[in-house]
Amino acid sequence: MAFLVAATFFMENLDATIITTALPAIAQSFQVSAIDLNIGISAYLIAVAIFIPISGWMADRFGAQTIFIAAIAIFTFASILCGLSPNLECFILARILQGIGGAMMVPVGRLVVLRSAPKKDLVKVIAYITWPGLVAPVLGPPLGGFIVTHFAWEWIFYLNVPLGILGILASLKLVDNFKQDNIAAFDYLGFILLAGACASVMYGMETIGQNPAHFQSSLLLAFVGLVLFVIAIRYMQHKTAPLLSFNAMKQKTFSVSIWGGSIFRIAISTIPFLLPLMFQIAFGLSAFDAGLLVLAVFAGNLVMKPFTTQIMRRFGFKKVLLVNGIIGAITIASCALFSPDTPWSVMLLLMFINGLSRSMQFTCYNSISFADIQVSDKSHASTLFSMFFQISMGMGVALAALILRGLMYAQGHQQSTLQDFHWAFIIVALFSLFSLIDCIQLKKDAGDAVSGYRPSSSA
């Protein structure tokens, strides 16, 4: 079941990034500029952000299996529509529909796993379902470039069809149609507030990263989204049956995964954006060669994955988060040493170590998040986690773009220089250290029931 959810998670995350290298080919097909196609990315991400908050209520009302299968079916059908789109307008509508399906797949799938997995196996199953969030953003751009180069851009979307069919068939056998009997009426005002907050933040941060001309208006829109989010929280805290309960935030292990984890995810999301851009602008490499170099990070992610469970069991959550968080910051800062004269072997090694560290930290945050969640709060906790996950992963590119633009403005550059990229990596590394403030406040035995850590077994 965990592998099934991981496959859907991979589809959802891959579709958010694989399209980037295919934009020129799609734009040529639709006879529009590549810049106009950016709305295809934004529409997908915003649809995901808007509909995540209702996924938990839908699963409780109509059954986890029903909603999970419906989400896969919508996502798969929308993928076919994307490939068949004759023009930009149809493509955007198909991407919105695809985003709606993706918004339901991930939180409902995670909820299914949380409800069925014994506590002692929670780290293992969460490790399975979290690796796509690391792999897809790194693998997406070079994979998209390969498909466009050797096949056609439509196959980027058609690849989802066999995966979707297999996912539906597997769900019919593996997923129980668990539902709640006395579920409250749908909270329309809560949905409007949360949807408005998520859409404003996501669109504001997306346009900051894409269009420098709209910097101030985009930043204002993102700020309005944050204000709406605060209003939504206050409203739902005083409502008897809210769309989304925040009771899970009372658990320190969960709140650490939300606040500290979000800072960490924002930081690591800048790397797949900054590295290829530096390799192309400052090193003069092609887009494909730049993407291939960044695959060293992907290799580190994969190599670390089999060892994450043993490391958490050996040292415990708190120690791993603190020590590995510092290692991760150092590896991000080490990218400031890269130059066209740096041997490729050195760059590949440092990026590989960065992949090892980010994989460990990513899995650790995801595993500790549900360590102490009560059964009654699992649905809301899964939705909350997915919502913050989506927003934080989407804000990485915006943060990187903001830093580069600020450095260009401060030094009077019309285009980013190698020095600008070096300072950007250092700033991101320092920013990532803020995630450790929450970790310091964890108890020494935080999440031990899940990780299996015993102080007496440590060196």
TrEMBL record:
One of its GO terms (molecular function) is transmembrane transporter activity. Its main location: membrane. It is found in: Cell membrane. It is a multi-pass membrane protein. Residues 1-447 form the Major facilitator superfamily (MFS) profile domain. One of its GO terms (cellular component) is plasma membrane. The chain crosses the membrane at residues 39-59, 66-86, 92-113, 125-149, 155-172, 184-203, 215-235, 256-275, 281-299, 320-339, 384-409, 421-440. It comes from the Bacteria. Keywords: Cell membrane, Membrane, Transmembrane, Transmembrane helix, Transport. The keyword Transmembrane applies. Pfam families: MFS_1. This is MFS transporter. It comes from Acinetobacter populi. The lineage of its organism: Bacteria, Pseudomonadati, Pseudomonadota, Gammaproteobacteria, Moraxellales.
